[in-house]
Every structure is written in C-alpha cells, then in structure tokens.
Amino acid sequence: MNKAAELFLGILTAMGGFVEIGELTFTLGSGVHFGYQLLWVTVLGTVGIMAYCEMAGRIAAVKRRPVFSLIRERNGFGAALLTLVAANAVNLLTCAAEVGGVALLWQLMTGWPYRALLFAALAFFIVVVWLLPFQWIERVFGLGGLLMVVFIVVLWTMQPQWSEMAAGLLPSMPRVESSRELLLWAYMGVALLSSIMLPYETYFYASGGIEDAWTPSDIVTNRVVVLVGFALGALLSVALTGLGAQYFGPRGIEPQLPGTAALAASVVFAKIGLGVAALGLFFAFAGAAIETALSAAYNLAQFAGWPWGKSKRPREAARFSLAWVVVFVAATAVVMSGVDPVQVVEVSIVFSVVVLPFTYLPVLLVARDKKAMGEHANGWFANVLGWFYLVTLTIAALAAIPLFLLTHGGRG
Questions:
Q1: Strand, coil or helix: what is 150?
Q2: Residue 70 confidence (pLDDT)
Q3: How far is the C-alpha of 181 from the C-alpha of 410, rounded, in Å?
Q4: Tell me, what's the pLDDT at 339?
Q5: Are 227 and 69 in contact, with CB atoms under 8 Å apart?
C-alpha cells in the first residue's frame, strides 16, 4: 500500500476509534447537565492525547520501544510493577464496560437476554482477535466507528445554538446555582478529561506502531494521523455534547444506557438512523474492548520481557495470547456478576486518571532526551505541552477520587 493510502486510512481509523463508552457517557452527561459549558475540556483533552500519542508513536518509530518497557526502565521495577497493576486494573474495568456495552446494544436491537448476549460477545471477541491480523482489527473497527458521523449530521439538522457552542470552546467560570452543582461540574470536567486521555490509547498506539514496523520515515505519517484523525474524532465528541444539550437535556432524559444515544438519530432519520447509530456504537465499543484487552496483554508481556504481538503466531507468543484471552474472560465475568456497565464505566474513568501521570512521565522523558532520540527529540513546543499536561493530569488525579466520593459518582 502506498503512503498516501496508508495515511488516509490511518486518519479515518483514528477518527472512527476516537469515541468509546466512557467518552460517550461523559460527553452526553456534560451536555445534559451543563450544556456547552464543558466543551473546552474536550479541546483540552484532545490536544493532550494528540501530544502524548505523537510522542509515543515517534519513540516507537525511532527506538522501537513500547511504553511499558520505557516505564520499567525509567521508573524502576517497583514503580513499574505498581503502574502495571493499576493500568491493567483500569484496562480490565474498561474492557468490562465495553463488553457490557456491546451486549446492551445487541439487546436493544434483538430483545434477547442480556446474559446470553454477554457469552456471545465473549465468543465474538476471542474469535475476531484470534483470526484477524492487527491491521485488519484496526481498520475494520476504526472504519466501522465512522458510522457515528450520523450524530454530527443529527446535531446539524437540529440547528444547535452556535454562539453557545463557540463560547463553550473557551474555558470559563461555571454557571451553577449551588456548591453541589459546582462539585458535579468539577467531577464531570475531570472525568471527561480522563475519558479522552485514557492510558490504554497510548499503550495500544505505541505497540501498534511497532506491530506495523514503523521506522523514522513514518514520523511524519504518525504526526499527521494523530493531529488530523484525533481532531476529526473530537468532532464526534462535540456532537455528542451537543445532543446532550439540545435533545436529551431539555426532555429531562438521563442517557444512562449506552444505546440511548442512538435514539437521537431515530428522531431525524427514523429506523435507518437508529440502525446506523447503533452499528457505529457497536464498532466503537467493540474496537475499544479489543484495544483494552490487547493493551493489557501488551503491558504484561512488555514488562515481563515475553514475546508479544499480533504479528506473531499464537504459538510463538503463547503467554501474550493467553493474557488477552484471560482479560476478555475476566471482563465478561465482571459484567456477568450483575454490575451495571455504566457504573463500571464511571469507576474505570475516575481511576484511570490516577494512572495517567505515571503513564505519561516516562514517555515525555524519553521523547525529550536528545541522547536517546537524536534529531527526533522533542522541540520546545512539545516539551511545554508535555509538562503542561503532566501538571494538569497530576492535579486532576489528586482531585478525581474525592470528587467521585463527594458527588456519589456524579449523582449529586
């Protein structure tokens, strides 16, 4: 495949894979409760994930080193082990939420029993990941997620309040009437930032670069895919916030179930809109479930020094293959226990922000190291962005759990 086609597919895949169940939950929720007031957090988070995924991809191209290998090298065995346990706990919870989300979508479309669909989802994921090569997994689920563009079209037809939307892109003081609403506003902001900058995205992206055999000649491609693909993906987040503000909020609907978002599309495009939106959500959730399971396996294999990668046959990377199968089984067991997938989403998002500073610090330290990266080391702008987001995420990590407890998980 030539570079132009590869670049185009990479951009579309990045866009289609940008939104997952956590981001869906908190973008809709922020729109319902606060209109466009937290739209600037989407911008903040998008720029942050661009910055760190670009660094991680550049390191993968130059050093051919994955993130968790760097974490162990830079942070030492003890700190790296703690990060591994925390990161994979978040990966497991996120995967459980995505598997539950897929089963709920199937239940919405078929009316079949939820628990039976969980078993069907587990079988589906294991078969797909076992049989499909890495590039096909990326493209099938990334491109399938592009069906969520229907949400942008739906919001456009609803004629949103463009002036309020534009104002929401700039940070401003919250317009709230009580201290309880202020705490909820802060909680939503932290959770939304975390949902956009989930650590698994960086793990998966860097490991994927190595799977795709990137070299320094791919640095420009990496940069364009991250900047353009994630910027376009952020439009989906903006559209979901708009639907929360324009459609669900005024009707007093709290879109708790993942499939509820698809109802907005049915208002404009009837059953076709519902079907397209539900299918787009399926590809988004399923893609995120696969990425989190593989990310957990990547992390463990890279930490332990095992052979890893979808490019290897399962027999050649047996422990890696067993690891992602175990993650899928454990994730299904979590939601099979009767836990609400939405509650799993909320817990995973809050605790992921606690892991973020430990994930991103070694990436920043290597990317700015001229001895390690040579001419491909960070420039001054990338360094400023990196340190700014590290400080921001550290503050968010300190605030996340207290806000979660004070707001009862966003329930006031």
A1: helix
A2: 78
A3: 10
A4: 84
A5: no
Q: What is the rounded distance in angstroms from the CA atom of residue 280 to the CA atom of residue 286?
A: 10
- Close Cβ partners of 347 (under 8 Å, ≥ 6 residues apart): 93, 409
Which residues touch 317 (CB under 8 Å, ≥6 apart)? Answer: 301, 306, 307, 308, 309
pLDDT, residue 1, reads: 53
CB contact at 8 A, 65 and 237? no
Q: Which of 134, 133, 192, 147 is nearest to 12 (CA)?
A: 147
Residue 311 to residue 334: CA distance in whole angstroms: 29
- Which burial class, exposed, middle or buried, applies to 157 when counting CB atoms under 10 A from its CB (0-12, 13-18, 19+)? exposed
- The whole-angstrom separation of Cα 26 and Cα 23 is 5
The string over 333-343, giving b where at least 16 C-beta atoms fall within 10 Å of a residue's C-beta and e elsewhere, is ebbbeeeebbe
For the chain, domains (ranges, CATH) are 7-406 (1.20.1740.10)
Q: Which of 274-288 are b and which e, b meaning 16 or more Cβ less than 10 Å from the residue's Cβ?
A: bbbbbbbbbbbbbbb
CB 223 within 8 A of CB 53: no
The pLDDT, as a whole number, for residue 404 is 92
Q: What CA–CA distance (Å, rounded) separates 279 from 118?
A: 17
Q: Give the phi and the psi of residue 70 in degrees, each rounded to 5.
A: -70, -40
Task: Say what the pLDDT of residue 64 is.
Answer: 84
d(C-alpha 97, C-alpha 411), whole Å: 19
Distance CA 194, CA 126 (A): 28
Tokens of 215: 């070299």
List helix spans (H) across 64-161. Answer: 67-110, 114-131, 134-144, 149-157
The three-point CA angle 244-15-209 to 5° equals: 140
Q: List the chain residues with pLDDT less than 70.
A: 1-5, 412
* CB distance 396 to 195 below 8 Å: no
The amino acid at 378: N
3-state secondary structure 179-202: HHHHHHHHHHHHHHHHHHCCHHHH
CB 207 within 8 A of CB 66: yes
DSSP H helical segments within 225-260, as ranges?
230-243
pLDDT at 409: 80
In contact, 5 and 143? CB cutoff 8 Å? no
> For residues 320 and 66, what is the distance between their CA atoms, to the nearest angstrom?
15
Other CB atoms within 10 Å distance of the CB of residue 30: 29
